[in-house]
Amino acid sequence: MNAAYVPSDYLPVFIQLILALGFIVTTMIVTHMVGPKRNSQKKDDPFECGIPVVGDARTPISIKYFLIAILFVLFDVEVIFMYPWAVNFKQLGVTGFLEMILFMGLLLSGFYYVIRKGVLKWE
């Protein structure tokens, strides 16, 4: 049985969406109108876990930190693809094994490139 969907089937979803957005907008407007508006030097100071602010927040950070973070995410996500392959190893057969060898080859060639470029060398 293949039933066709009509736009009225989605009416409850749209009503819920409109009610949710209306609640958000109403809550934001009411809290800004009713809430206290007292500013002071102490209240406007930045606060980080009870530690007094020292220095400027705009100090430059080494690009190496960001490169390592991005590479970690990249290689970590690629390793996630290996889990479903390992679970379905028998069903995938030789073709799945060869595809994983190709995948690992590309992954390791990227890792080799990163090492050759010296991205992981920290000074």
UniProtKB/TrEMBL annotation:
- What GO molecular function terms would the record report? NADH dehydrogenase (quinone) (non-electrogenic) activity; NADH dehydrogenase (ubiquinone) activity; quinone binding
Q: Which reaction does it catalyse?
A: a quinone + NADH + 5 H(+)(in) = a quinol + NAD(+) + 4 H(+)(out)
Which keywords label this protein?
Answer: Cell membrane, Membrane, NAD, Quinone, Translocase, Transmembrane, Transmembrane helix, Transport
The domain of life is Bacteria
What is a single cellular component term in the Gene Ontology annotation? NADH dehydrogenase complex
Q: How does it sit in the membrane?
A: Multi-pass membrane protein
Q: Where is the signal peptide?
A: none
> Known InterPro entries for this protein?
NAD(P)H_OxRDtase_bac/plastid, NADH_UbQ/plastoQ_OxRdtase_su3, NDAH_ubi_oxred_su3_sf
Coiled-coil region(s) at which residues?
none
This entry's Enzyme Commission designation comes to 7.1.1.-
Q: Where are the transmembrane segments?
A: 13-34, 65-86, 92-115
Q: Where in the cell is it found?
A: Cell membrane; Membrane
Could you say which enzyme class this protein belongs to?
A: translocase
**What PANTHER family does the database record attribute to this sequence?**
NADH-QUINONE OXIDOREDUCTASE SUBUNIT A, NADH-UBIQUINONE OXIDOREDUCTASE CHAIN 3
Q: How does it assemble?
A: NDH-1 is composed of 14 different subunits. Subunits NuoA, H, J, K, L, M, N constitute the membrane sector of the complex.
> What job does the chain carry out?
NDH-1 shuttles electrons from NADH, via FMN and iron-sulfur (Fe-S) centers, to quinones in the respiratory chain. The immediate electron acceptor for the enzyme in this species is believed to be a menaquinone. Couples the redox reaction to proton translocation (for every two electrons transferred, four hydrogen ions are translocated across the cytoplasmic membrane), and thus conserves the redox energy in a proton gradient.
Q: Describe the family membership recorded for this protein in Swiss-Prot or TrEMBL.
A: Belongs to the complex I subunit 3 family.
What is this protein called in UniProt?
NADH-quinone oxidoreductase subunit A
Q: Which source organism does the UniProt entry give?
A: Rudanella paleaurantiibacter
Q: Which gene encodes it?
A: nuoA
